[in-house]
Amino acid sequence: MMWATSYGFYTSVGIDTDRRAEPTAIEAHVRVRWPGNGAFLVGADQFRLPPDQPLDVLDLGAAFFREPRRPAPRSVWNRMGFWLIHEEFPPTQLPVRSPERAVATWLGVPSWLPVLLTGIWPFLAWRRERRRKTPGSHSTDTAQ
Q1: What are phi and psi of 95, to 5 degrees?
Q2: For this UniProt entry, which segments traverse the membrane (predicted)?
């Protein structure tokens, strides 16, 4: 289902964690994400938080079938669905006054690839078992 919808919708599932780090606090969104461009991404975004903001040590995060958030392709590989993103954003000022992006790290593949890889092994096992049970196939019986 996610493969079929990965071309038109943004979906994200993961965990958010907050921690203190001097001179600010860090919020990390660790996610599995389908941004709406036909890719499947795994990675994290980190944000700097104001030091006085209360922290949630652990929080579940998800968004389902939203408006696409398609990253701009930077290479032929991106157009084929393969992504490697690592971006660092310098702070505007320290301590920060409002949440701002710090780091983004993502690894992505075309959304059909995980479906193929997780579906091909059961299919091959089923086919091998079916061939083994089919009468007359791979028989070693000989007339005497």
Answers
A1: -70, 155
A2: 103-124
The DSSP code sequence of 21-81 is ETTEEEEEEEEEEE-SSSEEEEEEEEEEE-TTS---S-EEEEEEEES--PPPP-SHHHHHT
Asked, for residue 106, whether it belongs to a domain, the answer is yes
The residue segments making up the domain with residue 67 are: 2-111
Q: Does the residue 16 lie in any domain? A: yes
pLDDT in tens, 20-73: 887 789 999 999 999 999 999 999 999 999 988 899 999 999 999 999 999 999
Is residue 76 in a domain? yes
Tokens 């990965």, residue located = 6
Residue 121 phi/psi, 5-degree rounding, is: -65, -45
* Structural domains of the chain, count: 1
From CA 36, how far away is CA 67, in angstroms rounded?
A: 8
Q: Is the CB of residue 18 less than 8 Å from the CB of residue 55?
A: yes
CA–CA gap between residue 97 and residue 126 (Å, rounded): 58
Is 144's pLDDT higher than 90?
Answer: no
